[in-house]
Amino acid sequence: MLVKLSMSGLKSKLKDYLVLLVGLVISVSIFYMFQTLALNKAFIESNSVISSIQFVFHAGSVLLAIITFFYILYANSFLMTLRQKEFGMYMMLGAKKHKIMMLMFLETMILGIVSLVIGNAIGIGLAQGVGQLLMKQLEFTAGGYKAFYMPSLQITCLFFLVLFIISAIMNTLKLSRISVLQLVHAESHTDRPAVKGIMTVVTAVLSIILLAIGYWAMFNMETLMQAGIIIALITTTSGTYLLFMTFLPLMIGRLKKNKKRNEKGLNSFTYAQLSFRVNSLTKVLATVAMLIALGAGAITAGMGFQNNVMVTVNGFTPYDMVIHQPTEQEQAVIDTITFISKQQYRYKVDKKYVYYVKTDLEQHPPFAPYGVGRDSFGQYKPITEAISTGVVESDNWNDALRLIQPHYLYREQQVQIVDEQKYNQLQAEESSVIVGVSDDFLAHKEKWAQLDKMQAAKYNLSEMVLNSKYASYHMMHGFSSGTVFMGFFLGIAFLAMMASSLMFKILSGATKDISRYQMLHKIGVRRERLVRSIYKEQFLVFLFPAIIGVAHVVLGMKMFSFILRNPYDRIWVPLTIFAVIYAAYYFITVQMYKRIVLPSK
Amino acid sequence: MQAPVVNIQDVKKVYGKSGANQSYALKGVSFSIQQGEFVGIMGPSGSGKTTLLNVISTLDKASDGVIKIAGVDISKMKSGQLADFRSQKLGFIFQDFNLIENLTVYENIALPLSLQGVPSRKIGPSVQKVAATLGIAELLQKYPAELSGGQKQRTAAARALVHEPAIILGDEPTGALDSKNATSLLEAMTNLNEQHGVSIMMVTHDAFSASYCQRILFIQDGELYKEIRRTSTREVFYREILDVLADLGTQK
Ligand SMILES: Nc1ncnc2c1ncn2[C@@H]1O[C@H](COP(=O)(O)OP(=O)(O)O)[C@@H](O)[C@H]1O
Ligand SMILES: [Mg+2]
């Protein structure tokens, strides 16, 4: 009987349930999609040169799990608000409390399982679509990437089942603690901030301390390494939540305190709207701030890595090509490339020494690094220092020669400079090295690859250790495209989560507001004025998380300064993208909200 | 003589678009209310009381007829103008209080003044004054959820009054109150009317509440059926009302 009743109640709020279901499905599918990457060891190992990338994925999963956790709790408290009045009514009519609790538990679980099934199905589709699209965009063939990935399916199901059980228990407990009267009058409750007075101040200070620690960790990522990521993760997340729980109510309180401002036009109502649901709002807004930080941060980081590739590659070596004793095949390839400069240096090798010719080096001075400290990275100039014959003592010349003669060649020998005469007399095997700078490195990508392959075969080495510019390009590109791939993956995931978080915030609050706007309409507030009040209220709602989120991104990018030459390079691009998306959300949200709360014309 | 506060001529209201499901909720009602009157509107459920109040209060448009409030013809106004008109000339008390529950009593009462752009320094004294008149001066810092029904309704009355409207309109203001609270609200309204000259029009189906009025208009099936005036005590008037209601009942 009760089940039947509750089914009819469910039907009457079908729209709200649909919204809830869609929200849950989105979070399940995003989580699944992300896990197809994070858990796919084969994929990550074959596509990232640097092992820490896997750790970044794990850190991402933990974060997503934290965010999802709060998201699900929020979604379920929304479910609770949808039902509490009705359940109160049943109890008033004599339904037993434990039956109602059972009903609540079942409903939460059923909703959870349904969204899990649909969410996973959509997640598989999403993973397929997004994966293929990104790979195409990044010219990145990801071997072993599977959109349908069993471990990911398992972890998603396990994770969400645990979450749903937790929230079902929480909903049931909440229900068991409130009285029938509270349930029936659920909507007319005045929510007050939970922490007050001295506690607020203490928590506010604590939140600042946590954020400071988080930022400190991000600034010192170089020394802290993985511990830094964990510290930053925990402190910034908890700091953000606490900040929103304490500072936002304090701020709105301040707004309202100014009597003159509060009594101007609709302000008292606008500010009251802001502070009324302040408790639930703070957590949602903190979540949104974190999602902004993560979404925009992930895209910023991804783009930063992409921007960084050529800068880094050019830093490793000034030469596009260094080839010792080219074979005919190699020479054929070399001949097809246009060089801006190409030099040949002769040398002879015996058991103890590699002999270079002094005049060769003087006529065509090779590149050597210049500058000091970090700034010297990637700066090369033809060497100006004079060279004398004999074993090379000068650091500059050693550096210059190291660029010409890769470490895997002549490991046993020392380098000696000899004059032309002595060189000719030497009884040793003659050889030569060709170094060159092409007109456009990226335009000849395939040719460098061919050359590297031949070289690798010649010396029986893996292409990895060739140390050629192409090898480092290949490595950096592999590293960066994996990172960019991940950055966009993460960015998409977190921004999509943000969208549905906001949707929930709006829809779960809006129905309560209808009567207020109706009332204001009755006492003669012009529609335009109500609209303005909504724009203003929502603007403030949107503003705070945006500020914090962007601050996280901007300060957090510092964390990459030990891998990226300039993490702030073109940072305005992702920030602008974010601002545009966010502004669009703001306007859509206001429109949706208006449609719900304002009396029809 | 001054122009009447409310003057309606041959007001009709049709619900439904056209054809078969069209129905007349008001079938040509005419009456006027003078400045300082306390008028009650009575009638059986479904007789058109709320419809009448809604067209007078500009919340709904009459299908036909002329409605003048404080000498202004409202039938041709646009919705924005109507909103302004409501906020300046009318005060409302609804059955379900309609207070904004996230504003304090003070803020609720102050709202109509804020909306009209009254400077903050003038708002305080005005709110204090009406609050004192309605006996809620001690409650100003509370939220509606912390008040009893009677206190809520007196807050609503204070809000309806604070901007000195031409008339206060009430739709079953005592409908959600127990008899003690209802009595105190009605006494407060009588006091407003008698001591402060506030014009009031109140819809009610309750004879006891109606007996506080000076004049009562009975409507039935969308038409004015009868009008009675209070000539002696409230108790006598109360009995007269009951008689009319009995008539209305037997007629049907
Ligand atoms: N929005 C509406 N649409 C259609 N018919 C309505 C509407 N509002 C009221 N009515 C009809 O108009 C008549 C008068 O209703 P109402 O003014 O609410 O009566 P009262 O307030 O006296 O009980 C009733 O027959 C009612 O069914
Ligand atoms: Mg009615």
UniProtKB/TrEMBL annotation, chain A:
Q: Its GO CC terms? A: plasma membrane
The answer to whether the entry has keyword Transport is yes
Q: What does the record say about its membrane topology?
A: Multi-pass membrane protein
Compartments annotated for it: namely: Cell membrane
The protein's superkingdom reads Bacteria
UniProt main location, coarse: membrane
- Write down the InterPro entries for this protein, in alphabetical order: ABC-4_Integral_Memb_Prot, ABC3_permease_C, ABC_permease_BceB-typ
Show where the ABC3 transporter permease C-terminal domain sits: 61-178
Protein name, please? ABC transporter permease
Q: What organism is this sequence from? A: Paenibacillus agilis
From TrEMBL, chain B:
Q: Does the keyword Transport apply?
A: yes
Its name, as the record gives it, is ABC transporter ATP-binding protein
Q: Which GO terms describe its cellular component?
A: membrane protein complex
One GO term in the molecular function aspect is: ATP binding
Where in the numbering of this chain does the ABC transporter domain appear? 6-246
Which family is annotated? Belongs to the ABC transporter superfamily.
> What keywords is this UniProt entry annotated with?
ATP-binding, Nucleotide-binding, Transport
Give a Pfam family name. Answer: ABC_tran
